[in-house]
Amino acid sequence: MLVVPADHIVKGQRAFDSAVTLAATLAKQDYLVTFGIKVIRPETGYGYIKPNRKVTLEKQGTLKGHPVSRFVEKPNATKAAQYLKAGDYYWNSGMFIWRAATILDEIRCHQPTLFRGIERIGRLMQAGANRQAIDDAYRTLTPVSIDTGVMERSRKAAIVPVSFQWSDVGSWGSLDEVAQKDKAGNVAVGRVVDLESRRSIVYADRRLVATIGLTDMVVVDTPDATLVCPKSRAQDVKQLVEILKRQNAPEYLEHMTVHRPWGSYTILEEGPGYKVKRVTVKPGGRLSLQLHHRRSEHWVVITGTARVTRGDEVFDLKVGHSTEIPVETRHRLENPGQETLHIIEVQNGPYLGEDDIVRFQDDYGRNVNR
């Protein structure tokens, strides 16, 4: 099993293939193998690994596999500088190869509570449980980093130091390494107007963002929030997320755009007693048959054709047509056409939370009222 994060960039296909081949050989011997990246700067956002170079487990050309001597999870700046100077540490790439049976055995050994939760999910899937039951079981699991939870504790951990180019673009700071820059070293994405800034990253999702005289800064503007910070502290955004979590901030609890199995919705505006959404339904998609206790809804079709169930009625709405869904009325929205359906939904009522919903039928295995 090859585990590769989606937000990494790897360059050098042949070198990558060779490393995977050697790592697979070790994995067949029941090692948990990670790829080590040469340390080129004192980075505090990555984990560090020290191989036991006295032992070579496998060799293929210039590549060698070694047992792991030490893991260090995201050191401070002083320690990171020391590891760079020492020259015998590697960044933990977060890419792994192992046998499925081996990693499950190690999870059972080092994280028994987590393993029991995984077993429960496996039993639910084998029994043909619906998606909601599986999702509910998954949410009971306590998140554990594979590095701290298993790799740092396992006697089967091995490392293959590699030579291919690697970038982790999981943070705004690391985007600086791979993105195209202007003559002043700036990275600009979206509608950005700048005057005399240097070595800065500016990301504009929708609105125009104007900057003047920035140096080594990150500016990220999205519908949910705006982030402004020095590039050197881009990793600290995780601390901000924890603060928002403790505050139960609406920006943490719900994004402006929320994806569902049938499509998505985007909150356009909200205030006391009302909320306005743009609802997008894929061709052939349909929402659950449902009702709300504390809100009414008004739908206006802006593209496509909507098939509406309202009480005992079923009818189609074309572009520009609208309908009202009263409180306590069973209803459903579906897209019978070949093009994407977009509607504007206006909600009114004393409570507009997403948990005010009773489902009677659902195509996606979510809990329904019997």
Descriptive report:
The chain has 370 residues and is α+β, with helices and mostly antiparallel strands. It has 3 domains: 2-168, Spore Coat Polysaccharide Biosynthesis Protein SpsA, Chain A (Alpha-Beta Complex), CATH 3.90.550; 172-237, no CATH class; 254-361, Sandwich (Jelly Rolls), CATH 2.60.120.10. The chain has 9 helices and 26 strands. The chain has helices at 13-27, 77-86, 100-110, 112-126, 131-139, 146-151, 172-178, 237-246, 250-253, and strands at 2-3, 8-11, 32-38, 48-51, 58-60, 63-72, 90-97, 157-162, 165-168, 187-189, 192-195, 201-204, 209-212, 217-221, 226-230, 257-260, 263-271, 274-281, 289-291, 296-303, 306-310, 313-317, 322-325, 331-334, 341-348, 358-361. The strands form 7 sheets. The protein has a 6-stranded antiparallel β-sheet, with no helix packed on it. The chain has a 5-stranded mixed barrel with strand order 3-7-4-6-8. The radius of gyration is 26 Å and the shape is globular.
CATH architecture of the largest domain: Alpha-Beta Complex
- Tally the structural domains: 3
Strand arrangement, largest sheet?
A: 16-17-18-25-20-23
Chain-averaged pLDDT: 92
Number of helices: 9
Helical fraction equals 10-25%
Q: Which CATH class of the largest domain?
A: Alpha Beta
Strand content is: 35-45%
Tell me the span between the first and last alpha carbons.
41 Å
Q: Tell me the name of the CATH homologous superfamily of the largest domain.
A: Spore Coat Polysaccharide Biosynthesis Protein SpsA, Chain A
Radius of gyration: 26 Å
Number of separate strands: 26
Question: Uncertain segments of ≥5 residues (pLDDT<50)?
Answer: none
Structural class: alpha+beta
Q: What is the approximate shape?
A: globular
What does the main sheet amount to?
6 strands, antiparallel
As for the CATH topology of the largest domain, it is Spore Coat Polysaccharide Biosynthesis Protein SpsA, Chain A
